[in-house]
Design a protein that fits this description.
0% strand; mainly alpha
Length: 189
């Protein structure tokens, strides 16, 4: 996977984190850059860690599924992307409840970080199918991309509200589906 594709993959995977970060920004009366960095750091670290764990698991089984790896990659990316696109049109933020004095809840951030990076775990499994891969470069790009996008999400949420959350989630899902199709075509040809 080349660098521009990694950036696109990272951006696509980061859209769930972006959506949650927008909600966190909505809860801040005034932007707090320290809290924004903490939120972005949680999402960035987990978005980098989960593909690595998926890669390790995938390496365990890569010998058994090497002939069909591109079909598996296509199916996983298409499912994740399709789910994100579907959810972008079916989310309901009316129930968003913000505490009076916003402070990051580290347990909640942990749970949200894991929840928004499960799709990155599946992508990590697909990394194990690639012949020559620099997994540390891949997870670094994904983590840094997510950190930047999540940080921007907090600021956007604080500044503009939830206006762009669903559009970003749809775009991220579309990117994942397109990458899945590209990998499938390359694997067949």
């Amino acid at each position: 996977m080349n660098f521009p594709e990694l950036i696109l993959l990272g951006a696509g995977l980061a859209m769930d984190a972006f959506a949650v970060a927008v909600c966190k920004g909505l809860c801040m009366k005034k932007i707090n850059y320290g809290y924004s960095l903490i939120i972005a750091l949680f999402f960035g670290v987990f978005q980098a860690l989960m593909p690595y764990l998926g890669y390790l698991l995938g390496n365990t089984f890569a010998g058994f599924i090497g002939e069909v790896d591109h079909f598996i990659t296509f199916a996983l990316l298409s499912y994740i992307g399709g789910k994100m696109m579907y959810e972008s049109g079916h989310s309901n933020d009316e129930g968003l409840v913000c505490p009076v004095n916003f402070k990051p809840d580290y347990r909640e951030l942990f749970v949200l970080s894991v929840a928004t990076s499960i799709d990155a775990f599946a992508v990590g499994v697909t990394f194990s199918f690639e012949k020559s891969i620099n997994i540390f470069k891949n997870i670094s790009v994904i983590g840094i991309t997510t950190f930047i996008i999540a940080f921007a999400g907090v600021i956007i949420g604080n500044t503009f509200g939830a206006k762009y959350k669903n559009k970003a989630e749809f775009a991220g899902g579309l990117v994942l589906v397109i990458l899945g199709i590209k990998i499938l075509i390359e694997g067949i040809l």
